[in-house]
Write a structure and sequence with these properties.
By secondary structure, the chain is of the alpha+beta class. The chain has helices at residues 3-19, 21-26, 84-87, 96-105, 230-250, 257-279, 290-317, 321-353; strands spanning 44-59, 64-76, 91-94, 113-115, 123-132, 136-148, 161-170, 177-181, 187-188, 197-210, 216-228. It is 40% helix and 29% strand. Strand 1 and strand 2 (64-76) form a beta hairpin. It folds into two domains: 3-228, Acetylcholine Binding Protein, Chain: A; 231-353, Neurotransmitter-gated ion-channel transmembrane domain (Methane Monooxygenase Hydroxylase, Chain G, domain 1). Keywords: Membrane, Signal, Transmembrane, Transmembrane helix. This is Ligand-gated ion channel.
Length: 355
Amino acid sequence: MNLVRFLCFVAVTACLFALGGKAQAQNVLDGGLGALVGTPENPLEVGIGIRIDQVTSVDQKAENYGAVVVLRVEWTDPALAFDREVVGREIQVFNPSALAEHASDIGAVVPAFVVHNQQSNKWIHEAAASLRHDGHVVYVEKSSLTLQAPHFDFRKYPFDTQEFFFEVVSIFPSEYVSYYPLEEYSGLGDLLGEEEWVLDNPKVLHSTVIGLSGRDSDQVALAFQGHRHLTYYVIRVFLPMLVLISVGWALFFLDEYRRRIEIAGGNLLVFVAFNWAISADLPKLGYLTFLDFILQCMFLMTGALIVFNVALRKLKVSGHEDGARKLDNYAIKWIYPLGYAAIVGYAIFAYLLVP
């Protein structure tokens, strides 16, 4: 796309934003898209700060999360400078739309941006801009929105660590507007309000992506990680599973094979309920998670336990009670405990240890 075509694209986009009320609400800085920002020889340098004050929700099935975010944008444009003696002050304060109108009146422009992984409307709670006499602008907005989290990988669930991002991309190509991160104004708040996840390790990343113009545009992203509170899963999932495994092992000490079959059948139904309850929290994945593997193996072991006890009862009825007791004793000491130890050991190695 040559320069003329790009200017046409910018002008059309400005008209669309001016006509669409909802679009204007999504990015109030877009009102200054009527003129070119910077030049290839001297691109406008824009600082981006991203601070997440709250994480309102994490939807694993939809693979997105909701957040309340404070964005800080800084740049210096000499065209916006004013005479402080005439104005009577060093700093002027604007609401965003007034700043865009002021920039348009004097032939300057406010650099526009988009949130690359935004999924919902961005509702702006507060927004303001300050203009210093030398043309330095600080724009701050606090908003809430839903963001895509396509990098979720549940193979280690519930011991997984997930990656979250908030990505701000310039509408203008990198040769006209370049970004740099504002480290001191970026990060996570002290009270995020998210109980299920422990969110930490925030990092500000700078990169280049394909922007709306179809050319390379600068991007600044806040990346952070989240892992789960394991106490919940220990108490609600792993402890009941351990109890069910212990009950299955205790069945071998019953002399009546018919009673064993009845109790094992009840355990089988419990495992089915477990599987449905856990799968309800996750999307329909094309792979097994760590917990899925454990549950499916427990389900198969319980089914095998029923078949094994039916075979023992058939041996007893057919007059081979001594052989049935030997097999039963062998299962108590070796097959059942070592089988579960092998299942858990393989699951830990294959899902948690191997990258």
